[in-house]
Amino acid sequence: MNGLPCSPYRFMTADLVDTDAVHRFLERFHDSLCTQLETLDGGATFCSDAWTRKEGGGGVTRLLTDGDVFEKAGVARSVVSGLTLPPSATAQRPELAGREWQATGVSLVLHPRNPYVPTAHANVRFFVATRPGEPPVWWFGGGFDLTPYYGFEQDCRHWHGCARDACAPFGDDIHDELKDWCDRYFHLKHRDEARGVGGLFFDDWSRGGFDQAFGLTRSVAEHFYPAYAPIVERRRDLEWGEREREWQLYRRGRYVEFNLVWDRGTLFGLQSGGRTESILMSLPPAVAWHYGYEAEPGSPEAALNRDFLPVRDWLAADDKHS
Description:
Blueprint: E1 10-11, H1 19-41, E2 47-52, E3 57-65, E4 70-82, H2 87-90, E5 100-112, E6 119-130, E7 137-147, H3 153-167, H4 174-185, E8 187-188, E9 193-194, E10 198-205, H5 210-235, H6 242-261, H7 264-271, H8 276-279, H9 300-308
Helix pairs in contact: 1-5, 3-4, 3-5
């Protein structure tokens, strides 16, 4: 993530870091979100797969497939630990090498069947690295981002409005910072192309102390469903056919490329000996690549590349696309 803003670490004594509160929140969030998504889908329910990790910890992965809305929806919660941080965690932070660690979080990816309904991703996480005789180093991370196959101005403005609302209590400049961070992070460098229309992203976040950083993380988590559900309701019944499906499968290829090549969370999970099935839960159930494909000029597919994927200030009153 070279070139991305990174908040400085805040070294805290252990009694000021309420790890139990983080675990309780993430467990409630995992449960409530799965209930909301089942209701939104209306045709399928989650199956639950509890697992343990030999090196320490475990989690619960919930998967919904072949629903009325979601072709595949995964929501995973984990609490894992280890004796040595993997390379993906210390590449930017060599001073943390050799520390024991614990990571906990909730991660979700929603792949709808209707190509007019966008794919959505969100996660929130908490990380603590310790060494005997030294204060723990801790940070939060997370965010949410939207990957449409067909662009709708109304949906993008609503999505980014909810992102702004999530950040508003924590400072006037936080939303712009986290939006910019998201735009930079979810970028396929090998194609010089955005994965989607962005949202929020933050990592290594301890700004303002534990309560403030935890508050921002909770707010981001709690604003995800209100940001996504109205978009689903507006688009779920739009008619689509083979053309739209083929475009969806092709664009899903970009999602796979990012997750397997650039995503820091995927690399951390694999390098730390995580559970492969849960780590790769984010991948879509069907995908296609077409060599040298270009969307037909003037088509709705071309409009996604031209008008929606380039970075924009979706909330600017004078946006030239308004």
